[in-house]
Amino acid sequence: MDIAFLLNGETVELTGVSPTTTVLDWLRETRGLTGTKEGCNEGDCGACTVMVTDDAGTRALNGCILFLPQINGKTLTTVEGLSAPDGEMHPVQQAMVEHHGSQCGFCTPGFVVSMAVGQINGETDHDLQLAGNLCRCTGYAPIVRAASNAARRPVPTWLRDIPTGPALRGYANDFQPTTTAALAELLRAHPHATLIAGATDVGLWVNKSLRDLGTVIFVSQIEEMRRIETAPYMIRIGAAASVEAFRLAIAKRYPSFSAMLDRFASAQVRAAATVGGNIANGSPIGDTPPPLIALGAMLQLRHGDDTREIPLEDFFLEYGKQDLEPGEFVEAVVIPREEGEDRLKVYKLSKRFDQDISAVLGAFNIRVKDGNVTSARIAFGGMAGTPLRAKAVEKALIGKPWTIQTVRNAKWSFAEDFRPMSDMRASSNYRLETAANMLERVWMEDQGQVTDVREVAP
Amino acid sequence: MSMGKPLPHDSAPLHVTGAARYIDDIPVPADCLHLAFGLSHVARGVITSMDLDPVRSAPGVVRVITAADLPGMNDISSAAHDEPLLAPGDVQYHGQPIFLVVATSHRLAREAAAKAEITIDPKPAILTIDDAIAVRSYFEGGPLTWKRGEVDPAMAKADTIIEGKIEIGGQEHFYLEGQVSLATPQDNGDMVLATSTQHPTEIQHKVSEALGTPFHSVRVETRRMGGGFGGKESQGNALAVACAVAAHLTGKSCKMRYDRDDDMVITGKRHDFRIAYKAGVDAKGKLVAVEFDQYVRCGWSQDLSLAIADRAMLHADNAYWIPNIRITSHRMKTNTCSATAFRGFGGPQGMVAIERVMDQLAHRLKMDPLEFRQANFYKKSKPQETPYGQPVKGFILPDLVKQLADTANYASRRDAIRVWNDKNPILKKGIALTPVKFGISFTLTHLNQAGALVNVYADGSININHGGTEMGQGLFQKVAQVAAGEFGIDMGRVRITATDTSKVPNTSATAASSGSDMNGMAVKNAVDQIKDRIARLVAVDGVKPKDVIFEGGKVIAGNTVFTFEEAAKMAHENRVSLSATGFYATPDISWDRSIGRGNPFYYFAHGAAITEVVIDTLTGENKILRVDILHDVGQSLNPAVDVGQIEGGYVQGAGWLTTEELVWDDKGVLRTHAPSTYKIPACSDRPDVFNVALWNGENHVPTIYRSKAVGEPPLMLGISALMALSDAISACGEAYPNLHTPATPERVYMAAKKVRT
After folding, report:
1. Half-sphere exposure of B400 (CA within 13 A, CB side)
2. Tens of pLDDT along A54-80?
3. Do B176 and A107 touch (CB under 8 A)?
4. For the segment B632-687, what is each residue's pLDDT rounded down to a tens digit?
5. pTM above threshold 0.90
6. Which residues of A touch B619 (CB under 8 A)?
7. Is B638 on the interface with A (CB under 8 A)?
8. For chain B, which terminal residue's Cβ has fewer other Cβ atoms within 10 angstroms, N or C?
9. CA-CA distance, B254 to B245, in Å (whole number)?
10. Could you tell me which of B215, B214, B206, B216 has the C-alpha nearest to residue B244?
């Protein structure tokens, strides 16, 4: 593929690049810019964090799972590009030195880039901003001190108006379509091609499974597929919308869902990962399907010019198998708006709060009128080979008074709905019991009880 | 004066700009080759066939090396000669290197390595401590027992006895920079290596053995590591030897770095332990007898396990006077990766067990755990002996703990937590204070030596070098501060250079927290020699050399004042050597490990932490809310660096005991081999409130500027997080929680459930 981008202020044009060459490898091995580090090569440590700017803004991304065509037409800023042309350090760099934010220094370039992005975007929730940058030396305290300090300093003049791409707005490539129709046509012609949106999963196929992907088609440059349309009666999320964009879009309407997405993954991963990708890869531990199912979301699939719409829960047939034909792709997901207030509660259970894969993810949409449960849509991740509704539990609730007694009775039904597996994340029993306890948590929250340890002050 | 100043890390400006060069950042020749290991896919068995043709014919492959192709010794072990670089015929663990691919790129080497067709006839693998006990798979033939007094009669007379056991999980180092090495062949058969290692000298030795050359033919250089934590004490040997052998065979520069998943599968980790205990107290609440059985899962080779298991025994007392004690250590050989050094080196596991005993006894006696601990501390007035016979001198913990408890309002917060817990049915808070007393020195006495080389150039600039390696702990800066302080010049004149086996030979690993104690002294020794020579030169007109003063960038001999540059130039012109080697050997230590008696430690470092947590009894999710630490670094060489070690050590220790869970399946396959499944603390896991203070005092023995070692001790402050979780679970019912580690949400949930019913 042929691509063009701005690198630290300089236009770079590359022809004939392998579409699965990562930005990290290119920077380090070809360009000789070794400030950006490889820590894990799977997007979980943030040592490779780079800054990418385009019309949608500036964000931090993991360079190890970012393929070169994904920055076609954009601006890439690496740690080497943060200092002023005369060598004056960026305020976050100064703050990191002053606050002793580096020890071994290997994670530091990644932190510095994340912090610089945070500063540009006016972020002050440093835990959220830095969740994807692991440090093994400092215990984070001095880094957060530095971040807080830098947030109070102005964005340096040389980074105030980063161009959103090179003068040449990237090369056109056959396998980087810019319309949904072109994608549909391309995929019909190449029904076994691999679609790459954010590459947060596909990147691992390349880096860890060492797979040769054959034909690949990039989708994130299709503006219409990134669109999120919010109407009073529904929200339609284009499959290529980033999880981060989705998180922000639903913050008011579904606060519990949006808050869970803080923990879906790090800022770097959320900015790349897409809602469609999280659905289409069919993972039993993807975090968006259970709440979407609880909200009664519909999936829009497209094959050539043909489209069909199915309930999202019907898409997941069994582990590793989805209702998706060769040449067909996920175009959008639609969340219908229900009457009345938002009642959706989403709970993510994992060993670590941030940037961890769920052991159990529970989504509860339980509606109560005059003290009785009128409807219940409850769905889980991590409890079966696919995201799955808890139908027996729902049945045990509907029509009953919304009391602790009803909740306790309904907890017995979880064993009817689920026989979860044991693995390195959690045992079967723990999954089953905590899934049931999440129902109790919904009720407790309704009673005004504090049930989240992260809301407790010392 | 540079001493005691909170200067930033010497490389901080390079770190933050991405300019700090790590091994993989060093420019290499265009024809540099890249290496990858082919790994065993079974835990134990015999290789019956090995088809490497698909590997040889893969793109970019230059050479494939098996055990039979090695020119010299097939051994990368630290001491025991039981660890082949490449499996010679039988395999001992899942992930063991079997062959080596040499290719034109890192990726092509990895791709090729995956193409081998190897058949291994599997044998029953010994994976767990139980497996090993069942077949008596021991290192050294059986258990080792050290004791003092008569445990059984004392226990029989005890007023209250508790028994139990705790499973203590291992820990992956997760240094952010993975293992990496680069070898460049020289003329005359020499080899130069740049390696990410805490132990350049051992790399030098292993490479020379592998190539069949004397030590002087191999030079190893280490400027900095992207984290070590003990994981680069011996675990870099494999890569360095592989690179040197491949470079020797091909005549090209060779580089090897593990992909993260390979790194986690191949290399050793902190030892997991099971510790069974029985402890008795008298009617006054004083310990009378304690018995420990420490089961240590060492893995397939010995590595440093014996010394690690020893140190666990040496910390079985922590801060408490135990008149009668018996410690039995079982060093189990298993078909898992060879567990290795990790910050604390066995000490943390030994300490967790005695802190568990103290916690459980206090629970049984219905005493405040802090009061019970305080009542059993060693006496500070009259030194009492440790179980191994070393008088506990300079014991400041009684005062330190009291000061911490007072300033952090331990007692009133404990009361407030009780009230809070009564009001909250789902969430429960807990609090705990635990002390640390950690012995400083290598227990293998001869390792307690260090060398240095100090060069003053004729322009007055200074180059310092010593045997210690920089892994982020700020060693180089501390030692540079010593040199600048002694010469009386500003820091800008002192250039710190890469650790290099050709500058300072025969060094010990940078380990056992010894870095600044030993290398600081060695550099001072060299500086003293140069200063003495300059002083003799400038001391004229009745001024005695010993009265010459070096300060403020000046050399002052009575009324005659030179700038340091002038003095250096003058020395050169008068043919006075401006270069000196320094040396230091830690005094006053002796140790007989066969009987477990002696004075293995030069002194003890102390500290204490109070941790407050909250748990969710519906799920076991938990959070550290507040941490207060008071830690003893003697007279600090650099308070900023020391506080950094304490904060980082605490979080790493708390991570070990909470979220960091290593899971092997029943085939001996490590299931948590990447950061996606192995969870070290992330940013939001640090305590919301994190108060760290340094104890105001100085070392009672004459260390460099009366400072104390700080590398390992703070890790054990994290034990307070485990005990705080246990305390929170105790709020759910009457029974003792018996919490095992790591205390993941699942373990916390299950323990709370058990306590409730």
Report:
1. 30
2. 999 999 999 999 999 999 999 999 999
3. yes
4. 999 999 999 999 999 999 999 999 999 999 999 999 999 999 999 999 999 999 99
5. yes
6. 347, 349, 434, 437-438, 441
7. no
8. C
9. 9
10. B206
pLDDT tens for A324-347 read 999 999 999 999 998 888 999 999
Length of chain A: 458
Residue B1 pLDDT level (bands cut at 50, 70, 90): low
- DSSP label at B683? G
> What contacts B153, CB < 8 A, 6 or more positions away?
none
SS3 of residue A198 by DSSP = coil
- Tokens representing B362? 């206090």
Alpha-carbon distance of B210 to B207, in angstroms, equals: 5
Residue A212 CB neighbours (<10 A): 9
- Backbone angles phi and psi of B709, in degrees to 5: -65, 145
Q: Which residues of B touch A438 (CB under 8 A)?
A: 618-619
Active-site residue identified among B172, B177, B612, B712:
B712
pLDDT for A357 equals 97
- Catalytic, B712? Answer yes
Are the beta carbons of B35 and B242 closer than 8 angstroms? yes
**Both tokens of residue B410?**
């331990």
Please name which of A97, A355, A454 lies closest in space to residue B681, comparing C-alpha atoms: A355
- Dump pLDDT digits (tens) for B158-212: 999 999 999 999 999 999 999 999 999 999 999 999 999 999 999 999 999 999 9
The residues near B376 (Cβ < 8 Å, ≥ 6 apart) are: B285, B286, B287, B320, B321, B358
B285-312 pLDDT, tens digit each:
999 999 999 999 999 999 999 999 999 9
- Secondary structure of B655-680 as H, E, C letters: HHHCCCCCCECCCCCECCCCCCCCCC
**How far from A221 is each of A59, A125, A224, CA to CA, in Å?**
16, 29, 9
Report the alpha-carbon distance of residue A413 to residue A376 in Å, rounded.
14
How many angstroms separate the Cα of A97 from the Cα of each of A91, B17, B162, B736? 10, 10, 50, 46
Nearest to B264 by CA among B543, B570, B662, B555: B662
Q: Cite the beta strand spans of A294-450 per DSSP E.
A: 298-303, 306-311, 316-318, 321-322, 328-336, 344-349, 360-369, 372-381, 388-389
Contact A42/B at CB under 8 A: yes
With contact defined as beta carbons under 8 Å apart, do B221 and B194 qualify?
A: yes
Q: Report the phi/psi class of residue A106: left, alpha or beta, with left for phi > 0 and alpha for psi in -120 to 50.
A: alpha
pLDDT in tens, B47-83: 999 999 999 999 999 999 999 999 999 999 999 999 9
Nearest by Cα to B448 from B709, B75, B719, B670: B709
- Kindly list the residues from chain A whose CB atom is less than 8 angstroms away from the CB atom of residue B648: 103, 136-139
| Cα atoms in the 13 Å half-sphere on the side-chain side of B23 | 31
Alpha-carbon span B657 to A157, nearest angstrom: 45
> Which tokens hold the place of B220?
């190893």
C-alpha to C-alpha distance for B226 and B9, rounded to whole angstroms? 14
ipTM: 0.97
pLDDT higher than threshold 80 for residue A398:
yes
Distance CA A63, CA A75 (A): 13
Q: Pairing mode, if any, of strands A3-7 and A75-77?
A: parallel
Q: Which chain B residue shows the shortest CA-CA distance from A97?
A: B12
Question: Is the separation of the CB atoms in B753 and B685 below 8 Å?
Answer: no
CA-only gyration radius of chain A, Å: 23
Provide φ and ψ at B350, rounded to 5°: -60, -40
**Tokens found for residue B562:** 């030179």
What sign has the CA pseudo-torsion B633, B637, B639, B640? negative
Side chain identity at residue B508, one-letter code: S
* The predicted structure's pLDDT at residue A339: 82
Instruction: Give backbone dihedrals phi and psi of B681, rounded to 5 degrees, phi first.
Output: -60, 140
